[in-house]
Amino acid sequence: MLKGILNYAHYLLEGSVENGEKVVDATCGNGNDTLFLSRVVGENGHVYAFDIQEQAIANTRKKLISNEKTNVSLIHDSHENISDYIKNQEIGGAIFNLGYLPNSDKTVITKGGSTVTAVDKILSLLKKDGLIVLVVYHGHAGGKDEKESLLRYLLQLDQKKYTVLRYGFINQKNDPPFILAIQKR
Ligand SMILES: C[S@@+](CC[C@H](N)C(=O)[O-])C[C@H]1O[C@@H](n2cnc3c(N)ncnc32)[C@H](O)[C@@H]1O
Fold first, then answer.
1. I want to staple 24 with a disulfide (CB 3.0 to 4.6 A). Which of 32, 69, 94, 96 is the partner?
2. CA nearest 17: which of 39, 35, 1?
3. Could you tell me the pTM of the whole model?
4. How far is the CA of 154 from the centre of ligand 1 (A)?
5. What is the CATH number of the domain that holds 132?
6. Into how many domains does the chain fold?
């Protein structure tokens, strides 16, 4: 359970996403979270996976093909446009793995404005007790601004409607990543 931040993000989602549900990977990158979600929701469920980079979509497609997964829609667009793709459907959960694509262009990063817009839109579609899990990397250029925008938005969410938790390492140096988890009540 304490192996790493991504394992912990998956552990949280596994506790609330059910087989057969529709879920969102807001930043598919190399496809690790997409593949994880695809397994959790099973053949009767569906994953909507977004990324603005062609390379990320291609990497994720390759990973899904080699794992024989067909329950995923790969969407080459910003997650802030999610309402163009998912309408009137309940979402069982979502993951955002923020920052830049590893081993790629470090200037193509997730940004506060679009991340907050996407989170806000997903919250309106999320099932009761559903979770949005955000893995927040903030050590790179632009990371601090995004972290601050996100925290500002989450701090004002009505506690009667949402529970927001922050999970983080307390003995790691150099801006360790942390998790923000929002549960709809
Ligand atoms: C840390 S990586 C994601 C890693 C990925 N989840 C995985 O399992 O490999 C962040 C990704 O967010 C993407 N991204 C940046 N801004 C975005 C946006 N507005 N909408 C969707 N994806 C975005 C980047 O292209 C990058 O691939």
1. 94
2. 39
3. 0.97
4. 20
5. 3.40.50.150
6. 1
